[in-house]
Amino acid sequence: MAEERLQKVIAHAGVASRRKAEDLITSGHVTVNGALVTELGTKVDDSDKVVVDGAPLIREMKQYFLLYKPRGVITAVSDNKGRKVVNDFFDDIHERLYPVGRLDYDTSGLIIMTNDGDFANMMMHPKFHIDKRYVAKVKGVPKGIELMPLRNGITIDGRKLAKAKAAVISRDKTKQTAIVELTIHQGLNHQVKKMLKAVGFPVLKLSRVGFGFLTLDGLQPGDYRKLSHNEIYQLKEAAGA
Fold first, then answer.
1. Helix and strand element counts for the chain (H, E)
2. pLDDT in tens, 98-117
3. Dihedral angle of Cα 45, 47, 48, 49, to the nearest 10 degrees
4. How would DSSP label each residue in 18-73?
5. Longest dimension (CA), the chain
6. What is the distance between the alpha carbons of residues 141 and 131, in angstroms, rounded to a whole number?
7. 145-173, pLDDT tens digit by residue?
8. In sequence order, what are the residues at sequence separation of 6 or more whose Cβ sits closer than 8 angstroms to the Cβ of residue 157?
9. With contact defined as beta carbons under 8 Å apart, do 136 and 203 qualify?
């Protein structure tokens, strides 16, 4: 069983923030297996009994879901303007879920929801090179060669981006639009929109259709499903864990 720092376990259980959990430990409010613990470096695993102010700690089961986010939904746990957020689709789930990364308000597609912070960080970190596949409807009809800068690594906002896979799936010469598939492993703010605009083809509609080997097969906007143990293992393996 994996060990985690005591303050992190307390925070994940929803008792207090990480900093408040540290204060609870150092001020003598926490016991582990009946013994008072005041050292912040203490690590515990699932077999340890943690008690805070006399109340046994109830640990959240780690949960992993794949959500098909519709357009017009905020990638956040709440919104002060009352707009629909991704967590609104999980009213029947007791654990506190957080989105892995984000999709724009007007972008639909695949997003992972979890309460496992380490897993979320692993999935979002660009050094792990997990591919994210997008399908965009763009204004204009690009020729294959016009997407070459994206394949070579375009510079956006003064930053040279990693090479992307880019291909035209279909063209509508009458409406002067096209469908472009783009695969990247970075996750910068508005990255796909900026990349396509930079080569002269502004995005009209965007959806993320793949994350690593995961797809939206069998799901409609607003649907979600649990990730299997094998899928979680494969994602971790793809990230080099």
1. 6, 17
2. 999 899 999 999 999 998 88
3. 140
4. HHHHHHHHHTT-EEETTEE---TT-EE-TTS-EEETTEE--PPPP-EEEEEEPTT-
5. 75
6. 25
7. 999 999 999 999 999 999 999 999 999 99
8. 194
9. yes
Catalytic residues, which ones?
A: 104
Task: Kindly give the pairing relationship between strand 203-211 and strand 107-114.
Answer: parallel
Query: What residues contact residue 210 under an 8 Å CB cut-off, 6+ apart?
Result: 110, 131, 132, 133, 183, 216
Q: What percentage of the chain reaches a pLDDT higher than 70?
A: 98
The answer for residues whose C-beta is within 8 angstroms of residue 1's C-beta and 6 or more apart is 45, 46, 47
CA-wise closest residue to 131 among 105, 171, 165, 88: 165
Q: Let me know if 165 is exposed, middle or buried by CB neighbors in 10 A (0-12, 13-18, 19+).
A: middle
Q: Give the pLDDT confidence score for residue 59 in this predicted structure.
A: 79
What residue ranges define each of the domains in the chain, with the CATH number in brackets? Answer: 4-56 (3.10.290.10), 68-118+221-238 (3.30.70.580), 131-211 (3.30.70.1560)
- Alpha-carbon distance of 60 to 24, in angstroms, equals 19
d(C-alpha 86, C-alpha 74), whole Å: 6
- Indicate if the pLDDT at residue 1 is higher than 60: no
Is the pLDDT score of 180 beyond 90? Answer: yes
Radius of gyration, alpha carbons of the chain: 22
